[in-house]
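Good morning,

Attaching, inline, the backbone tokens for the sequence recovery test we're adding to the shared suite. The designed sequence is right after.
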């Protein structure tokens, strides 16, 4: 059994600025696996996951068709942790609002000048992009901190040549 995070811990973890991996059912036919792509996202504890994408993209078409998606975020540093959340799309914002777009840019680009430059260079997204909001319904999480602590304790004092 995976060492799951508490609800407050998993919500805090999801709220931190991380690149998420969005997965959505690919309904284009054949034997396709789900579409899985990295995304910037927004989330506040207790709220909804917010994802912005181009309105004409395959991702947007599949999100509309499926009506739900999943998002996985991770911390690759030790100890390894992840949160995966899945749920229904509750709203589609068309066009994307300037405040939502600026919030996402500032979330990922902590330098204010860099964020301003990005927003200016991608101003067409105000008309080209849409926002999908998802209500988290199912959560999966793991935090291997306890395992890491156990390994550290078990290995303490042991070094090369120790029987």
């Amino acid at each position: 059994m995976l060492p799951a995070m508490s609800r407050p811990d998993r919500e805090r973890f999801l709220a931190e600025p991380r690149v998420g991996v969005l997965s959505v059912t690919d309904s284009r036919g054949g034997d396709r696996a789900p579409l899985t792509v990295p995304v910037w996202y927004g989330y506040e504890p207790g709220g909804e996951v917010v994802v912005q994408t181009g309105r004409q993209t395959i991702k947007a078409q599949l999100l509309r068709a499926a009506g739900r998606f999943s998002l996985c975020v991770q911390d690759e540093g030790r100890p390894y942790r992840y949160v995966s959340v899945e749920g229904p799309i509750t709203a589609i914002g068309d066009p994307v609002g300037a405040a939502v777009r600026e919030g996402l840019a500032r979330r990922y680009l902590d330098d204010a000048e860099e964020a301003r430059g990005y927003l200016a260079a991608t101003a067409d997204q105000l008309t080209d992009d849409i926002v999908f909001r998802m209500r988290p319904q199912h959560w999966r999480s793991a935090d291997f901190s306890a395992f890491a602590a156990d390994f550290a304790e078990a290995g303490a004092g042991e070094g090369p040549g120790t029987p």
